[in-house]
Structure prediction request, 229 residues.
Amino acid sequence: MAPNKNNEVLLKVLPYLSILTFLLVWQLIVDLGIVPKTLLASPLQVVKLFIYKLSNANPDGVLLGRHIWVSIQEAFTGYILALVLGIPLGLAMGWFLAAEGIFRPIFELVRPIPPVAWIPIAIFWFGIGITSKVFIIFMSGFVSCVINSYTGVRMTNPTLIKMARTYGASDFEIWRKICIPSALPMIFGGLQVALAISWMTLVAAELVAADAGLGFLITMGRRLLMPDM
Prediction:
């Protein structure tokens, strides 16, 4: 069915209505006592605490902005390291047999390990500071970057490769001028996946061991019996 103006307006409005309905139902569940306030904070309570923490360090002694900044630092440092190292490795493994032969066995040993499984060894090696979280995020994003870059090169149209060889292009020229541009959609897809996984892993790592960050703030809320935190 061809879209009309009414359908387009509806598609734009529905997401906002869905979110608004969810928040209203959430608020009613708490206000009506269906779920005790000691177990679930209402949206209004969460907003009030958010505004309060922007200018007040209580109850954990740190402003909300500081927690957000620490988490952003950890997330993007690990993410940037993952793409800087993971993308070139995946591109090389996808085209050069020597690179695949050397690095793929090691990568296949690391790939099945869940990101959160690196938390204990990261704490053992680096403590509970920013370095341990950067390492965990790097390991979680690195796998996606390598896999998507490798797959992108492998999916290069064979006809283009044969044509390039016909015109005398070397393997390196084919890799640089045909395979890498062809792999870009897969690479960008991998970057999106890596970013999402990195953020989820960050919060999980901060829940276990941290002295600042959003995950640490969640842990403090649990200890202080403050569900709005």
Remarks:
- The two ends are 46 Å apart (CA to CA).
- The mean pLDDT is 85.
